[in-house]
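Throughout our pipeline, every protein is held as a single compact record rather than as scattered files. Nothing more is needed to write down the fold, since each code stands for a local backbone conformation. The record that follows is passed on verbatim for readers who wish to inspect the format.
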Amino acid sequence: MTMNFTNTNLNLYRSFIAVYEVKSIRRASELLNISHASISLNVKELSNQLGVKLFKPLPRGVEPTGHADKIYPVIKEAFDTIKRGEESLKDFDSETIGTIKVAIPSTLVTFFLKGYFKEFKKKFPNIRFEFFNRAKQENFDLLVKGKMDLIIDLDHVCRRYDFMVTEIQTHKYVFVASKDFLREHNLSSNIIKETLAKLPIIGHREPLNDLSRSLEFDPYIVTATTEPVFYLAQEGIGIGYCVEEVVDSLNTNGNLVKLNVDDLKPTQFTYSIGYKKSHITQVAQEFIKGLKDHFSKRSS
């Protein structure tokens, strides 16, 4: 079998990437610690080999051409893959140093993963973490480009792109109310749908949207995260629709009562890990494997 490889010096591509990203040959020279003349020659040589013009000179810096815009993402991804491959060859043990960048809801960290992070730190004390706020669009873009390692969020959120997806845990939502709220409205823990629909309901946006498929109601308060639902319901402001495990964790004084609602199936959401297979580091792989084992033990 014959294998064909490009004869192009990879340093030419490395120079091209740097100039493209900083839009300046001078700044690229400083970034790569290579002389200004060498960067210019590399870019010119690559342009000659490809037979296209890659940059237009400006009074200050350079401007990529359409040809440069077209080849940059392909070349950048190839270099990122090479870098990940080099990293995966390093010995991986308790002395390994690295950072895992994760987009994750604060609720998961606060209530479900703090124990796992403690376990992971004992095993790999030199691994650091950087958390980003949920799976916002910019975080998806960073994951696509290989600048973020993982997204941990609702399963359907993680499947928006062509990522590898690993399910880790399913959470159930329950209706809760304070004892004072039940007394004030002359209610028991058993309630019918028609009554529930007339009461002020507080909840996180995603589960409330799911609930609206089986119950006609106007939410009183819609929150961006789960924790405020618990505290608002605890104050007797309304009926909270909250993750059951969050209620069990925070309801230490027993003031909140779980409600049984006739003929209403509670919302269940599965959380998953999303990642790009070509960009996953060995450090992040170890984190994913341990996280799956952690939740398996909790559910067994």
Q: What stands out?
A: The longest helix spans residues 66-88.
